[in-house]
Every structure is written in structure tokens, then in C-alpha cells.
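Trying the structure run again after the queue cleared.
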Amino acid sequence: MKLEGKVAAITGGTRGVGRAIAEAILAEGGKVVLNGRSNEKGQEALAELGVGNRAVFVQGNVQNQLDVNRLVDTAVETFGTIDIMVNNAGGSSGFAPIALLSDEAWTECLNWNLNATFWGTRRALQTMEKNRSGRIINISSVEGRQANMSAVSHYITNKHAINGFTRAVAFEYGPIGITCNALCPGAMETDIMKSAGPEAAAAQGMSYEEFLNVYAQQPSIKRLNTVTEVAALAVFIASEMGGGINGALLDIHGGSLLA
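Done. C-alpha cells:
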């Protein structure tokens, strides 16, 4: 049980990558506090996890700083501390070439990705710094390691920024036992991909199926990644064994990195 008794807060934890990480942490003996916009989906997630009071759901939108703060505060109030902060929630909409990209799409993406990661990290650090221990895991993307897709510049920009922020946190807080790393997965057909993917595909003049195939053909493994692959690495860097990994951008994209 690599994470026995450890407390994790996970943004966007009711489905997709966040849900997979929650399941993996629970399987290793940890406790989780999940965030999500839908109370119905949150309650469904708790029922499906079936771990009783080791899992808690907090409704909220990560584009709202107060909601992110409440997630972290609930972990501390419920379980007495926070050991692992997973800044997972993120996405974008309003896909368009840069000259046509709206202010609304740009700002939404900034709050959804970079700002949410900053808010969650800052709040968690207030407890972790007192404990002189902690793990911060930011979910970035292969798009934060390259820039070879059109109409998604806002998403690409935010993921690159998250990677820089990850290294800044690692540098500042590594000396007191707090590590910060970013996971950079390739494309996965999560719920958010299914909802946002068709719009992104249309902005690039292709069908959703063609869009997925482009991503599937980029890596040398010739398939999309899976959420369980991301979760496995998250558990490792959250554990004591992962304590020597800090400020790393860890690629889980099957060999599709072009930069």
C-alpha cells in the first residue's frame, strides 16, 4: 500500500484521468477528495468507488478560484491534512485559428487550465509547507511539449505555461520536501475528448473519427493512450519511491513527441 493514509485532492476527479488517478490512489490505501461541476456525477462517482468515507466529493468549477480553494480546504478539514494535490481539470473550447480566436475562448482556457493549476497549488502549499512534505502533480499534455496542431493555440499555450510553472514550484519548494511534477499524456478518448473533440475536429476541417485517427497515428505505439497509464505514473511519483523526481515533465504519449 504505497499511499496508506495519504490524503489527495483531485480537480476534475469524477471521470477521465482524474477518476483513474482517484481509483489508483484509493487502491494504494489513500483517501481522496474529488471536485467536479456536476453534483449528480459526483455522487455517482462516490457510489461507484465504494470506499465509504475514504472518498469525498465537493461540487465546484475550477474556473472559479473559490471553488478550487474549497476543494483543498475540504481535504484539510475532513482528513486533517493534504499530502497530494492533483491539478487535473482542464480543457478548452472555441477552437479557431489565432486570428479568429475569441477573447472569451482565450480567457476561459486560461482559467480552466493555468489559473486553476495555480490556485490549487497555492492553496495546497499553505498546508504542505507547514508539514514540510507534499506532492503536487499537474496534468499537462503532449501539447505542452510541442506545437503542431492548428486551431488549439490557447490550449497549447496553457499547457506550456503549466510546464514552466511546475518547474518553478519544484525549484522553490523542493528544498523542504515538496515535489512538483507534470504528466504529459498523449491523446485519450475521455469524456471531455468526446464532448470537445468534434468541435476541435471541425475547426481543422475533419470529422471526429479522422481527428482521433490523427492522434492515434502520431505515436510509435499507433494508438491512443489510456487513463490507467497516466494514473499508474501519478501513483508512483506521489509515493515515497517517487521522492527523487522533482520538476520533471513526464511523457506518456507513446512516442509522439516531435519537439
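The first helix runs from residue 16 to 27. Worth checking whether this holds up in the mutant runs.
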